[in-house]
Write a structure and sequence with these properties.
Length: 321
């Protein structure tokens, strides 16, 4: 049994805990919040063995094998470093940290301590993404030539909330733009050139970000993220011999349609639980095999992804202190 500890008991922590309960080889050992009362309530709801009113106390719990970091973006770096320092394996929410310098240090630390470290980019592990990779690998749509992907919803414009607050590492790019950007990286690799434009909110983060990526063999990606309106939140992958449509919301889709020779076939690809089961399963498999990184979401992938985010941030002048 792999014993998980969760720090930061917000929205995503609850969903993760739900899916953890479905896994036969994973258990919820401990949870930690800044508030003991909140930790107690969460532990009761999700049947955690222990609960703590500080994150550091959880890092010291010898019964915890792996820590899931589910706090706002600006805390990922330090909390991952602290958990690794305490001898814990770590799975940390996306974006892995605020910039490439931080991610590099996290990876170096994990390697130095010989501990497992993975970015919790759940999209990589769901059955639909696996199927898209398989189909492309088999050449079903020929060579992929273009991707269009978007993610948009009208977010609450609370300046103190996680999404619009610059000091918490907010903005549409870091929160949801990361998904289309990751999809383009997963399918087309690192682009040769990036162009980006953003609408900046008065709080100093982007409320909307438009990205255009071009690749050395002529491929392209047009990507969008926005907190201002609902957008289709779909992905269209065009190839030389067909196309794949990832149904909304593409980053956790449960169906894809394949267009080829004028016919359209739809495949239902349900995920387990709320979709987080599959990343949990990857952590369990890697830890059982004694690995310090996942091959599917390897350190290099996280390094490349944060470098792309850095490049876009520089173009739209989104700075974190
Ligand atoms: N994979 C996904 O599908 C997905 C979806 C949403 C978000 N995320 C990522 O998960 C992380 C958390 O997102 P969330 O939506 O769960 O956020 P959330 O509901 O605001 O929860 C974040 C938790 O972090 C803790 N925290 C510590 N310091 C904080 C501070 N200064 N301000 C606010 N909270 C603080 C709080 O827990 P305590 O009060 O218990 O200490 C809070 O409940 C983000 O990095 C986000 O990008 C991933």
């Amino acid at each position: 049994m792999i014993r998980f500890g969760i720090i930061g008991l917000g929205k995503i922590a609850g969903r993760f805990a739900e899916d953890l309960a479905l896994h036969p080889e994973a258990s919820l050992q401990a949870v930690a919040s800044r508030s003991t009362k909140k930790a107690r309530a969460f532990a009761k709801q999700y049947e955690a063995v222990s609960h703590y009113g500080s994150y550091d106390a959880l890092f010291k719990d010898s019964e915890v094998d792996v820590v899931y970091v589910a706090t706002p973006n600006h805390l990922h770096y330090q909390q991952t470093m602290d958990a690794l320092e305490a001898g814990k394996h770590v799975i940390c929410e996306k974006p892995f940290a605020l910039d490439a310098t931080q991610v590099k240090k996290m990876i170096n630390k994990a390697k130095a301590e010989q501990l497992f470290l993975m970015e919790a980019l759940w999209t990589r592990f769901i059955p639909a993404t696996e199927k898209v990779l398989e189909l492309i690998g088999q050449g079903v749509i020929g060579q992929p030539v273009s991707i269009r992907a978007d993610f948009g919803f009208p977010a609450s414009q609370d300046p103190n909330g996680r999404l619009f607050n610059r000091s918490l590492g907010g903005g549409s790019l870091m929160d949801i733009g990361i998904y289309p950007l990751y999809l383009s990286y997963l399918l087309l690799g690192r682009p040769e050139a990036i162009d980006a434009e953003a609408t900046m909110h008065y709080t100093g983060v982007d409320s909307h970000c438009h990205m255009e990526l071009s690749y050395d063999e002529g491929q392209s990606a047009i990507l969008e993220s926005t907190f201002l309106e609902t957008t289709p939140t779909e992905a269209i992958i065009e190839g030389t011999e067909g196309g794949i449509y990832m149904h909304p919301r593409f980053h956790h889709c449960q169906a894809i349609s394949i267009e080829k020779n004028g016919t359209l076939e739809t495949l239902e690809l349900p995920y387990m639980g709320r979709g987080y089961y599959h990343e949990i399963d990857e952590v369990v498999s890697c830890l059982k095999a004694g690995k310090i990184q996942s091959e599917k979401m390897a350190h290099k992938h996280s390094m490349d992804l944060i470098s792309l985010l850095d490049a876009v941030r520089s173009l739209i002048d989104l700075r974190f202190d």
